[in-house]
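Following up on my earlier message about zinc ion. Here are the inputs again, as you asked, copied directly from the submission form:
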Amino acid sequence: MATAPEPGTAIARCHCGGVEVAATFPSRFCVHCYCWSCRTTHAAGVVTWIGFNRTQVRFVKGEQLLRAYESSRGTVRRFCSACGTRFTFESSHGRWAEEIHLPLALFVTPVDREPAGNSFPAERPGWAPFHAFPE
Ligand SMILES: [Zn+2]
Ligand SMILES: [Zn+2]
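Thanks, got it. Here's what our run produced:
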């Protein structure tokens, strides 16, 4: 059952539906990330992230289902303990400290922007899909 989002927000949900967030626009960025940590923790060739200020992301349900994994010092990735879906990227470093990044793939309602860049393209395996963006 889709929860109708409030105007100016979008809904993201894990595979089992146990965890759901409402993210309020405007988002800050949307990029494809090819870094080794994203690729291995998500078991994927690329992870597409959309970033919000922490105050713009509200857990509608299931936050207690999330488990945390510190993928590097000060950087925590949370995932659903029921279905394994990777849900958040949160870091205490620099400009990311006030942000929470969510996988674009988890959104079940439209967001306010499309992917517009590639992060860590040098770490991309040759077989992973790639889209070139103008500089
Ligand atoms: Zn789940
Ligand atoms: Zn990454």
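One observation from looking it over: The helical segments are 36-41. Hope that helps, and feel free to reply on this thread.
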